[in-house]
Amino acid sequence: MSEILLEARGLALGYGGEPVLRGVDWTVRPGEAWFLLGSNGCGKTTLVRGVLGLLPPLAGSLHLDTTQVTRDQIGFVPQRSRTHTNLPTTVREFVGLGAVGLSASARGERDLADALERSGLEGLDDRDLSALSGGQRQRALVARALVRRPRLMILDEPTEGLDVSSEEVFLETLEALRRDAGLTLVFVTHALHIAARCASHVALFAGGSVRTGPRDELLTAGLLQEAFGVPPERLQALRL
């Protein structure tokens, strides 16, 4: 068995002392691709905030093995980039923001160039961010996270709003990163078709609890209906 990178045991997380999630048991090992699935408001983002250290446990434990991945080696990709349209920002400048907070020795042109290349943005570094397509902007978010040379990458619904072509290129970029760079992924999404394609493991959220395990054991008709409250035959059409 591989060493454990991240582990939750009896974890409860919430706000103002009120739990959103209870009794979470979750084990993440290096190189796995975890997809967090469930309806809106079910606690997916709450768990992500816990992993990022932004939300302390109300009960139980959440342990990150810092001998394998430090807090500086966690990359985060939000759903959208937010830049002021009146403040021109090049792709290079935007991606370089990912190094904020790192020591000067950890930042460098080589890391930035490598991040642009790995995310498929090589040659676009001087382009204004606002001139990029939606898919390219999402890859710029990945590049911004890659500047930190992460071991663990957390992505919060990064394909939401992308067209089919942009989504395909984005997923191919992620699959290459996992294959070539050995990244461990935690990917929040509603899209079952993406999880079915890319996940090695799945966490299903429903009713304040989380069921975790290998993809093929979790993506079953009964469990999906429990998590989404929608008949399984309708889930794909709704792109949940």
Textual characterization of the structure:
- With 240 residues, the protein is an alpha/beta fold.
- It has two domains: 1-74 and 190-240, Rossmann fold (3-Layer(aba) Sandwich), CATH 3.40.50.300; 75-150, no CATH class.
- The protein is 32% helix and 24% strand.
- The protein contains nine helices and nine strands.
- Strands 5-6-7-3-8-9 form a six-stranded mixed sheet, with helices on both faces. It has a three-stranded antiparallel sheet with strand order 2-1-4, covered by helices on one side.
- The longest helix is centred in the last third of the chain and has 18 residues, at 164-181.
SSE diagram, text form:
Blueprint: E1 6-15, E2 18-28, E3 33-37, H1 44-51, E4 59-64, E5 74-77, H2 91-96, H3 109-118, H4 134-146, E6 152-156, H5 164-181, E7 184-188, H6 192-198, E8 201-206, E9 209-214, H7 215-218, H8 221-228, H9 232-235
Proportion of helical residues: 25-40%
Outline the low-pLDDT stretches. Answer: none
| CATH homology group of the largest domain | P-loop containing nucleotide triphosphate hydrolases
Overall pLDDT:
86
For the structure shown, list the relevant keywords.
9 strands; globular; 24% strand; six-stranded mixed sheet; alpha/beta; 240 residues
Entry summary:
With 240 residues, the protein is an alpha/beta fold.
